[in-house]
Amino acid sequence: MKKLVSAGEILVEIMAERIGQSFLEPGPLLGPYPSGAPAIFIGQAAALGQPAGLIGAVGDDDFGRLNIERLRTLGADVSAIAVHTGQATGTAFVTYRADASRHFVFNIANSASGLIETDTAATKLLASADHVHVMGSSLFSDRAIAVALSAIETVKAGGGTVSFDPNIRREIMQASGMRTALDHVLARADIFLPSGEELFLFSSAKDEKGAVDELLNRGLSCIVLKKGAAGATYHDRHGTVASPGFAVDEVDPTGAGDCFGAAFVSFWLRGAAPADAMRIANACGALAVTRKGPMEGIFPLEAVEAFIATGKNMQ
Ligand code: ATP
Ligand code: MG
C-alpha cells in the first residue's frame, strides 16, 4: 500500500468548556487533546490502515508524549517526530462563539513545533513516501515552509503525488513567505481540498464552477470542496460528484476537515472511485464532529464502515 507523509505543527488543544467563554477571564477548560492539523490527518489515515508518517517536533514533556503515544496507537510512523529537551510542545487554546466561529490562542512557531527540520529521520521517512499532504496551517514560519517545500520536491522526484488543504488559520499564518508558499504548493498539487471560501483564495472567479474550471486548467487532478454538514463536492475534468454529509450531532467541529482529507486521500491512493472515497471521507468527517477534541473522533476502518452501513451515530 502507498505510504503518505505530512509535515508540520504538533500541539495540544485546550478547549473552553462553555460556548461564548472568553479567555479574558478564568474559566473551565477541557483537554489537553492531541492535535495539530497534520497530526490529525496522519492519525486518521493510519487508523484507516494507510501507511502514514509525520514529520514534526515536540518538547520532552507530557504534551509531547501524549501526541506521540496517540499517533503510535493509531498506527502512524512517529520515527520523524523529533523530541526537543528544554522546549515546550505547541499549544492551541480554542473557544467557540455563539455563531459557531472559533477563536484561537496559538503558540506554535515559538514552541518545539517551530524547530521542525528535514533531519536524518525525516529524510529517511520521505525516501519511503509515495504521497505528501500539505496543510496551509503548517506553513507557519519560513523554516516550516522550507520543510514542506523540500518534502514536496523529494516525493515528486520519486514519482509520488501531492495533496493540499489550505486550512487557513490567520492567527498562525504570519510568515513573510506564506502567500508565495501557498501558491507554490497549489501549483505542485494533484489533489486540492479547500473548505468553503478557501476555494476563492486561489482564483479570480466569483462562483464555484468558475473557480473549479480555472484551477483544473492549471493542472490539478481533482478538487474536493468541503461543505461542513452538507458534505462535499468532487470535481475533475470528467465531471462532478456531489456527496451528502451524514446526519450527526455535532459537539466539536475542529478536525473534521483533516479527518475527511485523510480518508479521501487514502482511498484515492488505493484507486477507489471518487464516489466511494467521498463516502468514506464524509463518514470520517461526520464522526470527527461527534467527539470533543480533534483526534477523539478518529475511528478505524471497520468502525467507519459499520457507521456507513447503519447510518447511525456511534456510541
Ligand atoms: P476544519 O475545521 O477541520 O478545518 P474544514 O473547514 O476543513 O474543517 P468542513 O467542511 O467543516 O471542513 O468539514 C469537513 C467534512 O467533515 C465535511 O465535508 C463533512 O463531510 C464533515 N462534516 C463537518 N461538519 C459536519 C457535521 N456537522 N455533520 C456531518 N458531517 C460534517
Ligand atoms: Mg480545514
Number of strands: 13
Mean pLDDT: 96
Ligands, ions, cofactors:
adenosine-5'-triphosphate, magnesium ion
> Fraction of residues in helices?
25-40%
The CATH architecture can be named as 3-Layer(aba) Sandwich
> Judging from the principal axes of the Cα atoms, what is the shape?
globular
Pfam families: PfkB
Protein name: Sugar kinase
Domain Carbohydrate kinase PfkB: 44-296
GO molecular function, one term: kinase activity
Write the SSE topology.
Layout: E1 4-7, E2 11-16, E3 29-35, H1 37-47, E4 52-59, H2 62-74, E5 81-84, E6 90-96, E7 102-107, H3 120-127, E8 131-135, H4 142-157, E9 161-165, H5 178-188, E10 191-192, H6 208-217, E11 222-226, E12 232-236, E13 239-243, H7 256-269, H8 274-288, H9 301-310
Parallel strand pairs: 1-4, 1-8, 2-6, 4-5, 8-9, 9-10, 10-11
Antiparallel strand pairs: 2-3, 6-7, 11-12, 12-13
Adenosine-5'-triphosphate (ATP) binds at residues 167, 195, 226-229, 231-232, 245-246, 248, 250, 253-258, 260, 282, 285-286, 289.
Pfam family, one: PfkB
Organism: Mesorhizobium mediterraneum
Domain Carbohydrate kinase PfkB: 44-296
Could you explain the architecture of this structure?
The protein is α/β, with parallel strands linked by helices. The chain has nine helices and 13 strands. The strands form two sheets. Strands 5-4-1-8-9-10-11-12-13 form a nine-stranded mixed β-sheet, sandwiched between helices. Helix 5 (178-188) links the parallel strand 9 and strand 10 (191-192). The two termini are 31 Å apart. The mean pLDDT is 96. Adenosine-5'-triphosphate binds next to helix 7 and helix 8. Magnesium ion binds at residues 165, 167, 195, 257. GO terms for molecular function: ATP binding; kinase activity. This is Sugar kinase. Keywords: ATP-binding, Kinase, Nucleotide-binding, Transferase. InterPro entries: Carboh/pur_kinase_PfkB_CS, PfkB_Carbo_kinase, PfkB_dom, Ribokinase-like.
